[in-house]
Amino acid sequence: MQTDLSCRLQEVKERGTYRSLRHGRGPVDFFSNDYLGYTQNLALQHYAKSLMEGYPHYFMGSTGSRLISGNYPITEEVEACIAAHHEVQSAMLFPTGYMANLTLFSTLPQRGDTVILDEYVHRSVLDGCRMGAATRWKFRHNDLNHLADLLARAKGRIWIGVESLYSMDGDLAPLVDMTALAQRYGACLLVDEAHAIGVFGLGLVKELGLSDQIFASVVTYGKAFGQHGAVLLGSKTLKNCVVNFGSPFIYSTAMPIASGLLIQHAYATFHSDSTAQEALADRVRYFEQHALGESASGSPIKPIYLSKDACRAAVFNELEDQGISCSYIKSPTVPIGKERIRICLHAFNTHAEIDSLVGILKKYQ
């Protein structure tokens, strides 16, 4: 068995797609998902410290799954607060966004149903679908005509899975038109808002006034909100369905109480102080004004496409040498031929840091 595993690893090394864990980062961050800089927010840190000093047991394990010993009144109060923020009937907390998507897409679609996914959705969505027995199709990225063609051919109940802000390409789903298309064919739209919350208000679903037209959405807190965990938003019936049929939820230990309270405080910070949101919007505009070929999408995720692996590697290495951390995204995370340098902008980045970044990128474009 060890030999078989070694052979598998050797194959990916020969393809140039071997992954390894890295230590450390440069002083200039253009690669984390900490868009608003909330992991550095002193008010949030002070709240966490006071919570730890006053209620240290909140940071310990929850002792079991939500259906056994891991459900607490405080957790349900936090969920009710989150639901109110997003103007939906119910909210259900999960330890990770991956688990939330795994639960959603393995629980709702049934045998005889059809799930139609944007080709660039998160891997967790695909893995969730693979746990179920529904027919699974993909449509070309953000291509409404292709989606309409598949909707016209779909059988059973129809589910559409998309991201609102795509994690690798940094572009937005046409949610308004997509919602209208779903309604025309009687399909249920499921939206992954992992990268949109905090960047576009509390997510594009709410910003576009679609909360009552989307069947369900997933929001994660490990990115702009600087916390840990995720939430599934939807109807009370959806929540009850997950409690009864959602295997990843049923058989997993619940998140600690402190995680929910820190998430709740992040919402309060977001609503009471817009400094970080304004700073992020400014940095995005500044980058779009100075980088070559940048369109004004408003997204902090900026993929940089270069023609050859050697060129991408040279850019990545020079950035690293200058203390600038970014991501070199390779296949199979993205399709072959779509490899890229992925830039993430943050509220705490300075114009001078962006100038240094853009100066290096322009040398290779």
UniProtKB/TrEMBL annotation:
Sorted UniProt keywords: Pyridoxal phosphate, Transferase
The keyword Transferase appears for this protein: yes
Cofactor(s) in the UniProt record: pyridoxal 5'-phosphate
SUPFAM superfamilies, alphabetized: PLP-dependent transferases
Record's signal peptide: none
Gene Ontology terms for molecular function: pyridoxal phosphate binding; transferase activity
A UniProt-annotated Pfam family: Aminotran_1_2
Domain Aminotransferase class I/classII large: start-end pairs: 28-359
GO biological process, one term: biotin biosynthetic process
Family indicated by similarity: Belongs to the class-II pyridoxal-phosphate-dependent aminotransferase family. BioF subfamily.
PANTHER family in alphabetical order: 8-AMINO-7-OXONONANOATE SYNTHASE, CLASS II AMINOTRANSFERASE/8-AMINO-7-OXONONANOATE SYNTHASE
Name assigned to this protein: 8-amino-7-oxononanoate synthase
Species this protein is from: Sphingobacterium lactis
Lineage, highest ranks first: Bacteria, Pseudomonadati, Bacteroidota, Sphingobacteriia, Sphingobacteriales
